[in-house]
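Schema walkthrough. Field components (list of strings):
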Amino acid sequence: MGHDVNTHVKNQTEYEYSRRRSANEMRGQVTTFAIMIFLTLIAFTAVYADFSAYLVVPIILLLAAVQVVLQLYYFMHMSQKGHGTTTLFLYTGVIIAFITVLTFLTIVWW
Amino acid sequence: MSSVAQKKGIGSVIWDYLTTVDHKKIAILYLIAGGIFFVIGGIEAMLIRIQLAKPDNDFLSAGLYNEIITMHGTTMIFLASMPLLFAFMNAVVPLQIGARDVAFPFLNSLGFWMFFFGGIFLNLSWFMGGAPDAGWTSYASLSIASPGHGIDFYALGLQISGGGTLIAGINFLVTIINMRAPGMTYMRMPLFTWTTFVASALILFAFPPLTVGLFFMIFDRMFGGNFFDHTMGGNTVIWEHLFWIFGHPEVYILALPAFGIFSEIIPTFSRKRLFGYSAMVFATVLIGFLGFMVWAHHMFTTGMGPTANAIFSVATMAIAVPTGVKIFNWLLTMWGGSIKFTTPMLYALAFIPSFTAGGITGIMQASAPLDYQLHDSYFIVAHFHYVIIGGVVLGLLAGLHFYWPLMFNTMLDETLGKVTFWLFLIGFHLTFFIQHFLGLLGMPRRVFTYGADQGWDLFNLISSIGAIFMAVAVIVLVVNIIMTISRNKLVGRDPWGDGRTLEWAIPQPVPFYNFKQTPLVRGLDTYWIEKQEGNKEGMIYAEPIGDIHMPNNSIIPFIMSFGLFVGAFGALYNGEQAWAVPVLILGLIITFSAMATRSLKDDLGYHVHKEDLMKDKGGKH
Amino acid sequence: MMKGIKKWRLFSLLTALTVFLSGCGAEHLSTLNPAGQVGRDQYNLLLISGAIVTLVIIVVTIVYILTIVKFRRSKVGEDLIPVQVEGSHKLELLWTIIPIVLLLILAVPTVIYTYNLADVSGMEKVDEDGDKKAVTVNVEANLYWWEFEYPDLGIITAQELVVPTQEKVYFNLKAADVKHSFWIPAAGGKLDTNVENINQFYLTFDNSSEGLKDGVFYGKCAELCGPSHALMDFKVKSLDREDFDAWVVNMQASAEEQTLEGEVAQQGEEIFNTSCIQCHAVSGAGSAGGVGPNLATFGDRNRVAGFMDHTEDNIKNWINNPEEYKPGNLMPQPEELNKGNKFSDQELTALAEYLMGLTVED
Amino acid sequence: MDLNTKYTPQSWPEHAEHSTLEGKNKFVGFWLFLGGETVLFASLFATYLALKNKGPSGMEFTTQELFELPLVFIMTMLLLTSSLTSVYAMYHMRNYNFKSMQAWLMITVLLGAAFLAFEIYEFNHYVHLGFTFTQSAFGTAFFTLVGTHGLHVLIGLGWITLLMLRNSKRGLNLYNAPKFYTASLYWHFIDVVWVFIFTVVYLMGMVN
Ligand code: HEA
Ligand code: HEA
Ligand SMILES: [Cu+2]
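Field assembly_structure (string):
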């Protein structure tokens, strides 16, 4: 166990296939990046446009959440196999994080 | 590279322990260090009880008393109970799941040494101008106002040892996730492994808020920050929240592994499989989860408003349900079994009603309006000593007797063990039962003295007498340990006769590489299954004998922790001593250069070769 | 099995003690003898939750005893291999649902009382003349002493709170330095005095405190606040409404009239006015924020420094060395007040005499 | 596992980062660590939100007067881009293309360093205005939150640089692949945190 690694040598077709697949994936990553830039732009614009805070704040928070999901699932490959346990733990962290922020916004007072 | 013990000089034994990355030896380190801190914390408790034995006593001065309760609470929670639990986790969990090693042997050692140096640092405060004196909760306005360096020792010491704890937690999590033997599915893991798993998850999520809170305190006290200074816009309630977001899960970090130990002992000495295994697992996870939703029950009187109080009241009560599930499943495990009253089993038996008594007073406190009366009174002191001693300490003592043969291949004396048990149990109830009433009669906690004739004199005296019983019990235990070590009567595999899980199937003393061949797990209580089927070897194997990869020993964790220890003095005296900043930098340099050495020098470990394995004793092929 | 029985004997002994205790407990200090509605509500919750948890412990105990009596190895035989029962869904359900029901029974009054006890709307109610109907007290907790201001009545006192009976008394709680907690066990649960905000609640007192052991209820600081936290006691005097009103009038008048009897007291006043007046006011009319406790009612009080018996000797001891009696308190040592010297015994006597004469009750 | 095993692009495993047990442990352990970091940053964010704009009486600094969005926008772009470049690096690692991986990592480091430079400039600017760590609770909370993130960036830079230097001669193998991979995860996490910082601290600081 442990130190033994499966030393599988790919044949040419397998090799090309995997190459192609990762190239495809990389194109997807660039698209993700474009979306993230776009979302950032919207967020900044929304603030500059000086709409009502009740409108802007939820929007930019939502945009942030989307960006984070993109980072996690695409850049950090959380959608791939083998991330089951780690996803569980990350979301547990997120829930606790959310509750923490929520309480600090409600029951730390002056 | 053979496990056969060669005769070694004392120096090389010490060096071996300073550099070890073997989880079994780290377990022994945790046991020794935790044990020492337990005695220190216990002596502090005795001082408390002496001071309170009679009204208007002047055995301890007011300031000193506050230092002693603070150090008693802090030491017991951070430096005694948790490390002792880690001792058993390290000793048992890898073996229980059929792993050759833990996931991060190097980090495991680093975790220990950080805890150790943090603990030493904290305790050095006694000799360097006074210990922390704002209670183990160190509430902000007082801890910011507290003169001297006590609180600085608290914040820095806990920061260092907390880092160690976090590392240990991650290590256990990954070990359990990745290193289980083939066939050891999650739903076949012994309960001690499960509780270790959940407790480690709690550590992972609960320690960061403490880290942040302690940093705030360090910034405020040493670097001019304003988090808790209301004149500068700060807010002390932030500390309360951060502390309890950590603090409440912390009590389950203590309780759950203890539950795990009992969940091993009770089936073993009832010769019956754990009743409702999956309910037990589910309850464990649920307790862990709910543990994060209830922290504000420590703050009912802070003035959070009725809505928050009501929500946290009800959420807190919910924890009784999964805990009750556990209590009843333990009872039903024994029901229809064949109960043998060994010392560990006696502790387990005493645990059930004692912990229930502590738990139900917790439920009373969970009722916010009632807690307005109970909070910060001796009722609270009674509650948490009932759950902590009745749950955690009984669990530790049970585990000590139960796993001693696994760790040392000898057996603690049963007669002395039972003497300890009865003295401790009687002393415990005598000390703390009466304190419920002290609280109801209006006695606040954390008072260094109390005036006569308020109706508290007799009860306090009774309580102090109870503490003497506990002290005698601990002394008998120490005698027992010394006798057992000097007698050194080896016992071999499965000494209790009724072992059920994999750790008892392994030959004794446990080889340094654990399993010669990785076992194949066919169900819950593997060893029991194999024994029932008449398998003399106790396990079947998932692989042929092959080379085993082992990590190298390393002194680097020790040096890294030592660097932090040195650096902490620099931070502590920042702005006060000319040498402070250089020392801070020196410490960080030590740590970082040790780290750099680690990352620049490849450390690939070594292999135990097949031929040596075949020769090794215990290999019956 | 002797051992098991011994343990249970201990338990039943302790249970007996429980019964015995609920009947006793000092009236001026015990939460088991509530002095007003708030304390009574909380006591009721104690009884409800106590009943529920007693039920729980009884059930657990019964199952427990049956188990260890019936299934000892010595009884079932050394070689028995018990049936390896996996579990039972029915039972799991049973011991999930019953506790839930029990907890709901506790949760309902808990939530109701939580909201009731937090209702301070009565504080703002005014009568036809625009005067506040209820008495409100601003409590400021200081390092080891308490200040009680009655903002609507223009009076102020310290260390001994005076409240009317048979009505809700409202409190605004605040700390001047570090966190403390305001607790009158007999009257009801505590509430913290924070440094950054004001906490509000109310208490009620059924009867005048006159008949109590010391004629007062005991109040405590319930949040660790420094070395002398244990000594940060205060006392509460509840007066029937008429007596209370009379007391208020006297207090309001205490600004003008200062009847001093005797030469010694006058000498005391002189010393006081040179050394002590910077920190201690002696008029009950005024507002909050004193550096030291207001001493207008000193002669009526029950204690010196909140916890020592009310004798002249203790006053003298206290002034002569406050640090010894309340470590860490902020009152200067006499040397600082008196050009580097201790007060002479004669001066101390004069001060004590003077202070004992400060009274608004007759 | 043998360090000296040489690979070809054909024999290089698909998921080099967790194809050994050591790698898998590192991988899972690091993700768990990030779960803990999430809570750590949540505590900092929560505190910041509670203390935002709070200071001694007469405090003159508010988010709206202090913050300059154009600067923040540039910083955001730098960090977002560096996230993409580290994805490129991992892409080349997967293809066993060590040179390109190093090159992309280098770009990542440069972008990160530029981000850090702007941040230092920003902090310096505030200090000159009189808005310092010790000036108010707001100041303390702001510098602690944003500074902790900055510290993470610095550690990330150091980590990646060290990895590059250490392995520059050696090339890729199964011993260092998990290290590169976790370092890149760390870098993405830093970006995730920044997304919340620019949203919660800066943008929400500007809306009223
Ligand atoms: C191991 C440690 C441990 C454990 C396990 C617990 C368990 C619980 N604790 Fe305790 N607690 C502490 C350690 C612990 N506590 C400490 C150290 C403090 C004080 C800190 C300080 O201020 O210094 C404290 C303080 C504390 C408070 C704050 C009091 C105050 O300061 O005002 C509260 C309030 O709700 C509370 C509640 C509970 C509850 C509801 C449980 C529950 O988990 C208990 C659940 C168990 C049972 C209920 C028994 C078994 C159940 C059944 C048999 C089923 C049926 C039961 C019912 C229907 C009731 N605890
Ligand atoms: C794991 C946690 C733990 C444990 C095990 C204990 C164990 C004990 N505790 Fe403590 N306690 C706390 C955690 C714990 N406590 C905490 C968190 C607080 C709150 C602190 C605060 O307010 O901030 C507290 C507070 C606390 C108080 C209240 C102080 C106050 O509010 O003023 C009291 C008073 O009775 C007390 C007593 C005891 C006693 C008698 C024991 C006994 O069980 C101890 C038993 C052990 C011994 C008696 C060892 C004796 C050893 C010897 C005599 C030497 C023998 C040596 C050799 C042979 C070498 N504890
Ligand atoms: Cu709790």
